[in-house]
Specification:
InterPro entries: Tnp_DDE_dom, Transpos_IS1380. Pfam families: DDE_Tnp_1_4. It comes from Gordonia desulfuricans. The protein is of the alpha+beta class and 464 residues long. The protein has a domain of 166 residues. It contains 15 helices and 15 strands. A 9-stranded mixed β-sheet has the order 7-6-2-8-9-13-12-11-10, with helices on both faces. The chain has a 3-stranded antiparallel β-sheet with strand order 1-14-15, with no helix packed on it. It is globular, with a radius of gyration of 25 Å. It starts with 19 loop residues before the first strand and ends in a 6-residue tail after the last helix.
């Protein structure tokens, strides 16, 4: 027998192992779903779609799909990762049962989405209540508002799907518009609404921005009535800078910070701003940045057609090396502007708050890691249901970080890192004295983080 020269141990493999659970770390997602009331809320909301004498509850099927997507699945069939471990995930529906449920929900998509969204809103309220001082809406006021970010993204379709269309980047697929609540620099974020649109949908379509904003506001526990108040700030890029959309935000008494497109005529007005009116701008850390300034443009341009109380603030800076100047740039300096109705605050602070809208890209990326990269179904309404599952998966991860990993850097980890370090931890099932125990892998590097998170969730009160 020759001696192996491989640097790895030589092992024989077979498929006779029992009591072994892969993806055991996903139990922290299950505990989050239970403590926020999501499992009960989905079960109650989807009762109309449960057939008499049915074995599987539609609410649990949707929850199982969300968990499967959260741990890395990207199609309905990936629920088999849960089905293989009934000791942890319970009885999981078969693939045909899952497909039939999705088809049934898609057949009455408006009612089904309303039901799922109502369950999401109720669970969000339970999660934020349990989070206490770490909740995104804790002590939110006009000076420190709860921030809702809007952004669109492109989803490529690799086959003929219903309502897929060419995109402005010469691709083919869909152009969903998303809304996320920002958890701030110490956290991540969670989706509030995703409106699936054909690929040729306009970037600055005011009707779509209004629809998504209204759906997002319905998800916020603190919003009561039509006039929300300026303790909620809607933030978006220049695609939202339309008369109709800003008029809608004004009617609902929302605060806003929206990109404002500059024309050559408007950009030329900046030449009339006195040098003393320019104040230093801040970098991402709130420190004065060399070569960047901000100034008020409101009184120098005609805003008669815009909502009353709107301000326009302009920023000029030296472009980054290699960046090309545009026609609206002046004297070799890059010009950008945004509109806001916030009255108080230093110009540099307001401009920094608006520039932090870039964090929305950090919310779109996890959504694509959780099933939004490729819509797996053919029907448009089926993919709308899939988008709801994507939001549930992202919310389960965000709520787990908020409740279980509050004081740990894992609070800001993205799904890929959580899967690699936490969800993939394996365990062994043992039974003794009529109790079932799950023994996590002793040498897993982050097993203590997982166990601490499960213990923290167990200490939370049961949902009302």
């Amino acid at each position: 027998m020759s001696k192996s020269t491989s640097p790895y141990p030589v092992l024989s493999a077979d498929g006779t192992g029992t009591g072994v659970v892969s993806q055991a770390g996903a139990t922290v997602l299950l505990r989050t779903a239970e403590k926020t009331g999501l499992t009960t809320d989905l079960s109650d909301a989807l009762t109309p779609w449960r057939k008499p004498l049915a074995t599987h509850d539609p609410g649990k099927i949707i929850t199982d799909l969300a968990v499967a997507v959260a741990i890395g699945g990207d199609c309905l069939a990936d629920i088999n990762q849960l089905r293989a471990n009934p000791a942890v995930f319970g009885q999981v529906a078969s693939d045909p049962t899952v497909s039939r449920l999705i088809s049934a929900l898609a057949a009455d998509a408006p009612a089904a989405l309303t039901a799922i969204n109502s369950a999401r809103a109720a669970a969000r309220a339970g999660c934020w209540s349990a989070a206490g001082t770490t909740a995104p809406d804790h002590d939110a006021d006009t000076g420190d508002p709860l921030i809702v970010d809007l952004d669109a993204t492109l989803v490529t379709a690799h086959s003929e799907k219903q309502d897929a269309a060419p995109t402005y980047k010469r691709g083919f697929g869909f152009h969903p518009l998303c809304a996320f609540v920002d958890h701030g620099s110490e956290g991540t974020g969670e989706p509030l609404a995703i409106q699936l649109r054909p690929g040729n949908a306009g970037a600055n379509t005011a009707a779509d921005h209004i629809t998504v904003t209204a759906a997002a506001l319905e998800q916020l526990p603190t919003v009561q009535g039509y006039r929300v108040g300026e303790s909620v700030l809607v933030r978006t890029d220049s695609a939202g800078g339309t008369h109709e959309f800003l008029g809608y935000l004004t009617r609902r008494h929302l605060a806003y910070s929206v990109g404002f497109g500059l024309t050559e005529t408007t950009a030329a007005v900046t030449d009339r701003i006195s040098p003393e009116a320019w104040t230093p701008a801040y970098d991402a850390d709130g420190v004065q940045r060399d070569g960047a300034w901000v100034a008020e443009l409101t009184g120098l341009i005609d805003l008669s057609g815009w909502p009353q109380g709107m301000r326009v603030i302009v920023r000029k800076e030296r472009p980054h090396p290699g960046a090309q100047l545009r026609f609206t740039d002046r004297d070799g300096l890059r010009l950008t502007a945004f509109a806001t109705n916030t009255v108080r605050g230093q110009l540099a602070d307001l401009e920094l708050r608006h520039r932090r809208r870039a964090r929305c890209e950090d919310r779109v990326r996890p959504a694509k890691d959780c099933g939004l990269t490729n819509l797996p179904l053919h029907g448009f309404d089926q993919n709308r249901i899939w988008c709801a599952i994507v939001m549930l998966a992202c919310e389960l991860i965000a709520w787990t970080q908020m409740l279980a990993f509050t004081d740990h850097p894992a609070r800001r980890w993205e799904p890929k890192r959580l899967r690699h370090r936490v969800f993939s931890i394996a365990a062994k099932i043992s039974r003794h004295a009529r109790r079932t125990r799950m023994k996590m892998a002793t040498h897993a590097p982050h097993v203590d983080l997982l166990l601490d998170g499960i213990a923290r969730l167990a200490a939370l009160p049961a949902p009302a």
